[in-house]
Amino acid sequence: MTDTPTLRRGSLGTADIAFFVVSAAAPLTVMAGVAPLALLIGGIGAPAGYLAAGITLAVFAVGFTTMSRHVRNAGGFYAYITQGLGRPAGFGAALLALLGYLGMNIGVFGLLGSATSDTVEALTGHRIPWLLPALIGLAVIWYGGFRSIDFGAKLLGVLLLAETGILVLLAAAVLLKGGAHGLSLHSFAPGNVLTDGMPGVLAMAFAAFTGFESTVIYRREARDPDRTVPRATYLAVAFLGLFYAFVVWTVIQAYGDTEVVAAAAQDPGGLFFTAIDQYVGGWAADLMHVLIVTSILASLLAFHNATSRYGLALAEEGLLPRALGRIHPRHRSPYVSGLAQSLLTLLVVGVFAAAGADPYTQLLLWVNTPGMLALVALQLLAAVAVPCWFRRRPGHGEGALRTVAAPALAAVLLTGALWLVVDHIDLLTGASDTVNRVLILIVPAVFAVGVLYALRTRARRPGVYAAFGAEPAEAVGADVAAAEADAGAPAAATPGR
């Protein structure tokens, strides 16, 4: 009898997982596409906003990664929330995770279509319909997800090095030439940081880190996950926070402290392209146009892989159809979950295209925004879940700084972050108040549906409910063996009611 295929264990190291996370954030796209708006809103103090967001998420990562050493379930946030806050909250978190990852993935195909059209027009003078590159990209991403995780990690490594390399080239050229009027650190002066526009910058900065928490989703495919997953999480957060702040600061130097905001106002979409054209050359500006497209493709592949693994985990839990839990016998990929995701994307993109919607202002922003809000809400719930989980396990052996103080501080900071994003949602969407209210209300509505579904499952499928979010059998066995070997150490517990 042939064994049931499983995900390819031991395939991913720290750098591989970090590539997935950083690629999902799409650094080049965030910098060239969003950072000019941050400069318009927050002035030259914008780099500090990215640092502040990075510090907040680093604090969150302390408790999150500490818990990851004890919770072996590969379901990501929903598993942590289930074990810390109970199954009803876990069901709600599971649906929020689906909303978050699907929203972040599907909406970006609108960006891929519009950015590719812009790139073709910039290089050739001719414009192509946005739907064509979006559909080609959909086929490419499906194939990338269908192949083994090793293939995806290698591909993302190449694409990520290319997109970060062009930004490093720009930064190095600016530094070597001393900027427009000499280099300064005025961006980090309190008077330039503590401005009325900084809350808006922070809202955009937190959105720029979306997807960093997906490290735990790859636990089953990681080498030595108790070490690899935390290291990849810290590496991704540190890199993104420092890199974003550094690149935005160098672009400020390229134009000068007093001129950069006016330049961003005059041509926000061209701010980075003009800078690299001036400091490096026209060929580099053309290359940056191309790498914007590959940056978006890398982000899509990273989110596609993460979403497919969420679908796999929820199918194994019984929350989604069991067919989504099938794994390809050769590539060891969750290929049915990936195919279902691609077909849903095709449907949504097709509906927006048939309705004549704008690929950027409507498909991207309207679909991405609830996804981003859902992921920030999940981070907040996970921060609350960490001390609750450790409090019920007094023999865990971890210090109070990691299990109580850091998660509590993270919960406070993430509450502020979520409020900033909601309060400044118009900066992210450019939509009417009515549309913004709908986009915001989708998130609590989906969570509420998950909680109600949990209650229904408890009544009608008690076996599925009881097993939801629990530790996998092999992990429980390992914990029991460790507990027997270490007298007095408690074995892993099941999630609460």
TrEMBL record:
The keyword Transmembrane helix applies. InterPro entries: AA/rel_permease1 (IPR002293), APC_superfamily (IPR050367). Keywords: Cell membrane, Membrane, Transmembrane, Transmembrane helix. Its main location: membrane. The chain crosses the membrane at residues 17-42, 48-67, 88-108, 128-146, 158-180, 200-220, 232-252, 280-303, 335-357, 363-389, 401-422, 434-455. The keyword ATP-binding does not apply. GO terms for cellular component: plasma membrane. It is a multi-pass membrane protein. It is found in: Cell membrane. GO terms for molecular function: transmembrane transporter activity. This is Putative amino acid transporter. The lineage of its organism: Bacteria, Bacillati, Actinomycetota, Actinomycetes, Kitasatosporales.
